[in-house]
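Tutorial handout. Part one gives the primary structure; part two gives the three-dimensional structure as tokens.
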Amino acid sequence: MPPGQNKRSPLKCAYGLFPTTNRRPMDRTPVSLLVRLQKPGDQEAWSKFVSLATPMLLGWARSAGVNGEDAADLVQDVFAVLVRKLPEFRYDRDKTFRGWLRAVTLNKWRERFRRTTPASLEAGEELLAEAAVADAAETFWQAEYRGYLVSRALEVMREQFEPATWQACWRQVVDDCPAKQVAEELGISVASVYAAKSRVLRRLRRELDGMLE
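Part two.
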């Protein structure tokens, strides 16, 4: 099934496939995308990150009631901050990448919200409206962030694998199909299906190391 037609969110699989315990320290994975983004001049890494993060940030913008060109502008505002600040980011127990990105995104939304709020709106109403979006934002970052990132990363990585290898992983991880069914669909052995899934996910874990917590 093509990526755009999957019937099931990869969220459940994202949490199962990328546990937060026993995570390898970032300094042991110099090939991760996050580490590459922190080095100056890596345009390929930034291009990949923009491709990964844009659909996710647009999804959050829509959940916050921002649509069309305003949503695109908000995403551009976020990326402008990331270009300046991401090289300074350092992971620790109290400062995860997800939490940091959430704070940047919500702050840029607040700035835009306050600029565009009608002057006639009561101060209390403004605070209530802002709080409502903040609650929705928290739900998004807690429940949907990893699913967005994992599914989009799989799509971006598609060209890096043979079609059958990528499809075997996608059908199991995103469409939640049994390995036997996938093997029959692709005309390969069940063992090959599991091997394909393992190969793709190993690459995915390395690429997204440090970005999922």
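Part three, for discussion. The CA atoms of residues 57 and 75 lie 6 Å apart. Residues 43-63 form the longest helix (21 residues).
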